[in-house]
Amino acid sequence: MKNQPIYVETADGSRTLFHPQVGEHYHSRHGAVQESRHVFVNMGLDHFLGRKATNDVSILEVGFGTGLNFLLTADYASSRGIPIRYRGIEPCPLPMDTIMQMGHHAYVSEGLWEEFLAAYQSATDAPQSVGTTALELAHCPVLDFRSAQTFDVLYFDAFASVHQPDMWNNDTLTHATSFLKPGGIFVTYAITGNLKRILKALEFDVEKVPGAPGKREMLRATKHEPSSRPNNGQLK
Predict the structure, then answer these.
(1) pTM here?
(2) What is the mean pLDDT of the chain?
(3) Phi, psi of 47, deg, nearest 5
(4) What is residue 1's predicted lDDT score, i.e. its pLDDT?
(5) Does pLDDT of 5 surpass 60?
(6) Per-residue exposure over 98-136, b if at least 16 CB sit within 10 Å of its own CB, e if not
(7) Domain spanning 31-223: which CATH class is it, in words?
(8) Which of 30, 131, 152, 219 could form a disulfide with 78 if both were Cys (CB 3.0 to 4.6 A apart)?
């Protein structure tokens, strides 16, 4: 059937989804869960918490997709008793039956999975509790997103620039990062010269760090604080 979702098993046994209109998978075929946990939870959230002693964390995700990044984040937060405010941006939300067939329930507790399913469709109206995380979803293009809230960590999980170049241009990155607090962390699976140049111009300290399986490197960047100066170790 033309419009049926195309599920694909990745190298770590977890599932991803192929988007025929975009021509790309939602996650790495080298391991969907491995990539999500490494890039966003470990290199993003865990790194932030290692730098800032806080129990009040807020996360903005560009590209909510199947909800995998959110679920692994909520599981991490619940296991540590950390409250998180999580806002996901997704212009093309997946239907509930597709979400349920992804198999993500195998990587979180049963209770957390049930709370996520109950929250998924109502999180566009008001924040919904999933473990210790409050989920809110914005079903709009990134450039239409507005919020009075600023965030500690930005998960940037758009499709690759070869398939969605408009998601990686100066306008989109400027708008998305405007919601990040000074000292906040931007993480993404990608690392390109253009991305590094844009973020440096936006006053981020940019670093390349080890990537998930199948990808040698990824990008992490820290937004300058008002009194900060670029460190000597930033990328040239």
Answers:
(1) 0.93
(2) 94
(3) -60, -45
(4) 45
(5) yes
(6) ebeebbbeebbeeebbebbeebbeebeeebbebbbbbbb
(7) alpha beta
(8) 131
